[in-house]
């Protein structure tokens, strides 16, 4: 529905009519609603780790003569603290992205560099969980944009692929040229996502399984950040998934003109 704000009305003037001046406020009101929802969600999300930390602090006080229990509670406080700091960082990233549309002063970015840096962010987690991370595809492709943001976007997809896969599986990052686009795909052999959830996972704070997301330190903001970064680069992100078999997330971005010397390389362990 449209919300029109009347600035001036139609009025008869002799045998003529004066035209009303009307302003369409639909967009403004929608933005306001989204902002209000966001603030409500943020407050709720911040209260969870803060509440847990308060309870744990009480537990530490009560267990002061049991060193093992104190150590356990302190570890959990540290985990909650890390979650809180990640949440705050992601909220800041997301609000910056929302005001930074499209990317300020874009520069040529090498996709190879983005993939290497993004994989680096998950290397330790993948090793801990015995997950094999591989990368391959067309080398030497470039896009116009912000390298840091693109590392965050691909990095978030890889982090999710690792987090939502059972131990010992494989996560593959592929780069392909499709006419004037580059497709960067992240494929896992993980839990997969039900069809009914596929449309919703890009929403802020939406998690299919909140308990599992919390366990992996997830904030529910990762994919909405990816979606924003894709859009601000003139691209898009999509997902294909089969429950129980795995998922492929694909980021498509407009390519800078093709340079000689680009060639396909085989899949390699990185
Ligand atoms: P989170 O911080 O919870 O991972 P995201 O926005 O990154 O938040 O993802 C939203 C939800 O989508 C996750 O909680 C998870 O349920 C689901 N999801 C994302 N990536 C994957 C994946 N590769 N495999 C299975 N489920 C996924």
UniProtKB/TrEMBL annotation:
EC code(s) of this entry: 2.7.13.3
Localization per Swiss-Prot or TrEMBL: Cell membrane
UniProt GO MF annotations: ATP binding; phosphoprotein phosphatase activity; phosphorelay sensor kinase activity
Residue span(s) of domain Histidine kinase: 41-257
Keywords in alphabetical order: ATP-binding, Cell membrane, Kinase, Membrane, Nucleotide-binding, Phosphoprotein, Transferase, Two-component regulatory system
Annotated catalysed reactions: ATP + protein L-histidine = ADP + protein N-phospho-L-histidine
Recorded GO CC terms: plasma membrane
Source species, domain of life: Bacteria
Entry protein name: Sensor-like histidine kinase SenX3
Listed GO biological process terms: cellular response to phosphate starvation
């Amino acid at each position: 529905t449209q919300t029109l704000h009347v600035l001036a009305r139609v009025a008869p003037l002799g045998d003529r009519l004066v035209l009303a001046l009307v302003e369409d406020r639909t967009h403004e009101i929608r933005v306001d609603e989204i902002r209000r929802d966001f603030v409500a969600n943020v407050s709720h999300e911040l209260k969870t780790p803060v509440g847990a930390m308060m309870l744990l602090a009480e537990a530490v006080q009560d267990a002061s003569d049991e060193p093992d229990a104190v150590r356990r509670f302190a570890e959990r406080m540290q985990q909650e603290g890390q979650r809180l700091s990640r949440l705050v960082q992601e909220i800041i990233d997301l609000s910056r992205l929302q005001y930074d549309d499209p990317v300020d002063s874009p520069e040529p970015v090498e996709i190879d560099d983005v993939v290497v840096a993004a994989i680096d962010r998950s290397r330790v987690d993948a090793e801990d969980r015995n997950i094999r991370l591989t990368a391959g595809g067309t080398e030497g492709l470039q896009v116009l944009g912000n390298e840091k943001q693109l590392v965050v976007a691909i990095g978030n997809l890889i982090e999710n692929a690792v987090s939502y896969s059972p131990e010992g599986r494989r996560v593959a990052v592929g780069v392909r040229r499709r006419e004037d686009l580059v497709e960067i795909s992240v494929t896992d052999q993980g839990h997969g996502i039900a069809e009914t959830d596929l449309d919703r996972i890009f929403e802020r704070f939406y998690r299919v399984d909140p308990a599992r997301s919390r366990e992996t330190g997830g904030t529910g903001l990762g994919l909405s950040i990816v979606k924003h970064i894709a859009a601000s680069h003139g691209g898009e992100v999509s997902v294909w998934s089969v429950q129980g078999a795995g998922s492929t997330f694909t980021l498509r971005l407009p390519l800078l003109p093709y340079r000689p010397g680009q060639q396909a390389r085989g899949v390699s362990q990185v």
